[in-house]
Amino acid sequence: MEHASLQHVSGALHQPACCTMLWMAAGGHVIRVDMATNELSVGLDRTLSFLSDVRHINNHADLTTAVKRATATFGVEKILAGFIPKTGTLPSEQLRHVLLSDWPEDWATIYFQKGLLFQDPTIRRILRTQPTFAWSELTNEPDFGKNERLVMASAADFSLRNGCTVPLLSLDGRHVGFSFAGSHIDDSPEAKGVMTLIASFAFGRAVELRNNELRAKVRLTARERDTLSWIAAGKTDWEIGVIFGVSDKAVAKHVHNIRMKLGAVNRAHAVAEAFRLRLIS
């Protein structure tokens, strides 16, 4: 039996698939789908079509549409996916962590402006890196209190009453949440498994598309690229200055410009961002 596997840039999940049988080991759910006997008929064709086409989708809007089409059988009407920001992150910065979304605009405004993200019980469960869960399970949590109940009730006012969330983890250790919502969501183990599989592939592609956009915006000079490469090789400003035949102050200026362009807090962060955006290799 031949297996084809894909490890996305997001590092979300490693999912094996084969031509006649699909095994989904995702978020604690292991599902055997025998295509010959059609044991899992709902959405299987759409799922396989999505997995085949996802690498060819070139913008976030089309990716969002494709995800919803692939999960429509499970009652999915809206999706939201992004990295989980640190506690205390400003609303404008929180929005930058979102990669895919067609949440109601009014709800998104309330959610981020009022800091509801930090009271959202789905976020708490994502941070525990638990298996894919239905929102209906949250009310059974021991720490589900007044604030959490208010968040869920407010979301319901915007037709976000039922849903499933897939917790994922990126290669650099960041927590990711991928939520599916609708009036009536199928939260069976089989549906959760398929949604987890689709979420991992979709988020991986979303990260690639975001990195492509950022890379196109970053304009490093040839000297700045060379400086980054030498920093990555462990050279100090003085050593790089000797290599270039300039003062270490001139190198420090290049480093400062690089950090500003990449939004990096220090040299190590700048190198990490450069590798992530494939500006250096």
From TrEMBL:
Domain HTH luxR-type: 213-278
Keyword Transcription included in the entry's annotation: yes
InterPro entries: Sig_transdc_resp-reg_C-effctor, TF_LuxR_autoind-bd_dom, TF_LuxR_autoind-bd_dom_sf, Tscrpt_reg_LuxR_C, WH-like_DNA-bd_sf
CDD domains xref list: LuxR_C_like
Pfam families reported for this sequence: Autoind_bind, GerE
SMART domains xrefs: HTH_LUXR
A Gene Ontology molecular function term of the record: DNA binding
GO biological process: regulation of DNA-templated transcription
Gene3D superfamilies on file: Transcription factor LuxR-like, autoinducer-binding domain, Winged helix-like DNA-binding domain superfamily/Winged helix DNA-binding domain
Domain of life: Bacteria
Keywords: DNA-binding, Transcription, Transcription regulation
TM region positions: none
Name the UniProt record assigns to this protein: LuxR family transcriptional regulator
Organism: Ciceribacter ferrooxidans
Lineage of the species this protein comes from: Bacteria, Pseudomonadati, Pseudomonadota, Alphaproteobacteria, Hyphomicrobiales
